[in-house]
Write a structure and sequence with these properties.
By secondary structure, the chain is an all-alpha fold. The chain has one domain (about 5-130). Helices cover about 75% and strands about 0% of the residues. α1 crosses α3, α1 (about 5-25) crosses α5 and α3 packs antiparallel against α4 (about 60-65). The termini are far apart.
């Protein structure tokens, strides 16, 4: 994704526009999973977290969704990549690829995201059952 300027730009601008719409009070849709079950999906709270992160309120952002920080790091790499000339973009992509290969950051983060979501879902379902 980092090697393709327009793809990087699209991946960054989509969520940025969505968060901007949220900040303006425009809600395009409620979470379908939350609407059907009354429970939070693994991504619930991410828009609010991104909004507060954009305002510089890191603690508030993390309280809405702790995975906003790795997501913001990915957005940052994509935004920088979209602005770089081709040769620099290739070097950045090579650097990130080597880093991911050594650390497994992306797959570990994605797995942790879903584990967090399942644990949060189980906790909320249990809390609803107790009511």
């Amino acid at each position: 994704m980092l090697r393709e300027r327009f793809l990087s730009l699209a991946i960054v601008l989509g969520p940025v526009l969505f968060v901007a719409a949220y900040a303006a009070g425009l809600i395009f849709w409620d979470c379908p999973f939350h609407h059907l079950t009354g429970l939070d999906c693994p991504g619930c709270g991410m828009t609010r977290a991104a909004y507060w992160l954009g305002r510089g309120e890191v603690g508030v952002a993390v309280s809405y969704h702790p995975f906003v920080l790795p997501l913001a790091l990915g957005w940052l790499f994509l935004a920088v990549s979209a602005c770089l000339p081709k040769k620099s973009r290739e070097r950045l992509a090579d650097f990130v690829e080597a880093l991911e290969t050594r650390t497994w950051f992306a797959p570990i983060t994605v797995a942790a995201f879903f584990v967090y979501g399942v644990v949060r879902l189980a906790y909320e379902a249990y809390a609803m059952w107790l009511r």
